[in-house]
Design goal:
Layout lengths: L1 H26 L2 E2 L9 H6 L4 H31 L5 H30 L4 H13 L3 E2 L6
Parallel strand pairs: 1-2
Helix pairs in contact: 1-4, 3-4
């Protein structure tokens, strides 16, 4: 009996993993700066940010952290509270989890785009060159 339940759950856990990898692969082509990452200080050096850009960078980094913390809490609550007793519930859970992960990625892009929009022409050219080297699609500048 235990092995039968394990085999059933195992298949659906693989399904959850598949949905997760699909969303990661779909988003992997965008060239993100990841201003919220542990290595985000490198952005200041690589793009030689001026003082105004550094100030904006810190503000964006803090705002991003706040938004991602809220979204991470939503994922934690989903995993803790969503029913997972049958295959249909696991599929619904996977879809909800994927939507939350995509939302987190979109939030990351939004804050990267805010910083990139402050780049001067040389900084943006450097960004595009780095993206091309990594075979990634650069985020377009949106001037407000």
């Amino acid at each position: 009996m235990f092995f039968k339940i394990f085999k059933m759950n195992y298949k659906y856990l693989l399904l959850l993993l598949f949905f997760g990898l699909l969303s990661i692969q779909a988003n992997a082509q965008v060239c993100i700066l990841a201003i919220g990452s542990e290595n985000s200080a490198n952005i200041i050096d690589v793009f030689q940010l001026n003082e105004d850009q550094k100030s904006a960078f810190e503000i964006f980094k803090n705002e991003l952290k706040t938004e991602l913390d809220i979204q991470q809490k939503q994922i934690k609550e989903l995993l803790e509270n969503h029913p997972q007793s049958n295959p249909d519930e696991l599929i619904v859970l996977a879809k909800k989890h994927k939507a939350l992960e995509e939302n987190m990625f979109e939030t990351t892009i939004k804050y990267d785009q805010k910083l990139i929009s402050l780049f001067n022409e040389k900084q943006y050219e450097r960004y595009v060159l780095l993206c091309e080297t990594a075979n990634r699609t650069p985020i377009l500048i949106v001037k407000e």
